[in-house]
Protein 1
Amino acid sequence: QVQVVESGGGLVQAGGSLRLTCAFYGSQFSLYVMGWYHQAPGQQRELVATITDGGGTNYVDSVKGRFTISRDHAQNTVHLQMNSLKPEDTAVYYCNAHSIVTREDYWGQGTQVTVSS
């Protein structure tokens, strides 16, 4: 069974930085595409960034140049470095593990990011 657990959210002023961490618990971390999504109040959950086992990345346009997703194979963790934060980045951020074999998705419980203006 796979479990992902997020940490690192918090309150920050506009222009500041936060680093989110997703810990992957389970086997065969390499067989999962890892991603970060966010959901603002009243909005649908949206993709922020994904990273493959080989390090290929994909970002939503609104965070390009500000956010960086990375993957630590030794620790089975995924990080999202968020710089130059804006109030519109305020949301609950969720970690996702997508199996490339079974196509199953596993979600964490989310971590709140609040950016004040």
Note: The mean pLDDT is 97.
Protein 2
Amino acid sequence: QVQLVESGGGLVQAGGSLRLSCAASGHDFSIGTMDWYRQAPGKEREMLASITRSGITNYVVPRGGRFVISRDNAKSTAYLQISDLKPEDTAVYLCRAYEYGGVVPYWGTGTRVTVAS
């Protein structure tokens, strides 16, 4: 059973930056694609970006380069660097991952980001 643990959230001032982490454990196989989502209060969950095991990235919504996804396969960890944070970035940020070649998605419980104006 794959477990995902997100970390790195917190309270930041507008204009600041954060790097979120998503660490995978408990997997029998290598971790494949990893995705970052977020869910703001009262809104639906939205996908932000994904990264394959080989490092190919896909950004779902153009965000002017404020969001950068990366990963470290040796650590089974994905990262989401967010710069120039805005109050509308306030949300719970969640990670989703698949075992390499697998079709079952695994989710973390999220890390909360609050941006103060």
Note: The radius of gyration is 14 Å.
Protein 3
Amino acid sequence: QIQLVESGGGLVQPGGSLRLFCTASGTIFSRYHIGWYRQGAGQERELVAQIFSSGITKYSDSVKGRFTISRDNTKNTVALQMNSLKPEDTGFYYCNGGMSVIGAGPTWGKGTQVTVSA
């Protein structure tokens, strides 16, 4: 089973950009579907973007056109490029991995904080 570690969070002004990274240990990373979830204060965790082992991507309506998810299997890394950030994008961002195309996988990172504020 892989382990996931997030990095790249921080404080950014509205309209700015951040790039998050999810780095995995293990030798079968390429077979994993990876998702980015976020949880705002007092809110449920929601799926923001997902990239399947095939490379197919999926986005929530709230981030479509602003966020881009990509993977580099040679580096065991998935990146989430976030542009045109809004205050409502604020939250704790978690990386999730699994081999099922349905629902969240069993492996979670510890998360990274993203704050969008002037």
Note: The first strand starts at residue 4 and ends at 7.
Protein 4
Amino acid sequence: QVQLVESGGGLVQPGGSLTLSCVASGSIFSIVVMGWYRQAPGNERELVASIRPGNTNYADSVKGRFAISRNNTKNTVYLQMNSLKPEDTAVYYCNVRAVLAAGGGLSDTWGQGTQVTVSS
């Protein structure tokens, strides 16, 4: 199985920056894709950004402000968030899809979520 530990959320003023981190551990043979989603109160969970070998994908609302990156040796994904706006306020969730070791098949794992609040 895969375990995820997220960190980096908090309170920031509009225009500020935050970096989220998510470390994956467990019986991982290879990671297919790592991503960040968010869910604001009353809204559905939405994709913010994802990264796989040779490809990154962003929601239109964060293009040019957020950057996703990955450290393969540490099985860690980062989300650098700049020029934050109040509408970015949400719980941010890490998601990892991986091939498990020893023929364990595919896994799709969610982190526990980290709160990001953008407010003056």
Note: The chain has a mean pLDDT of 96.
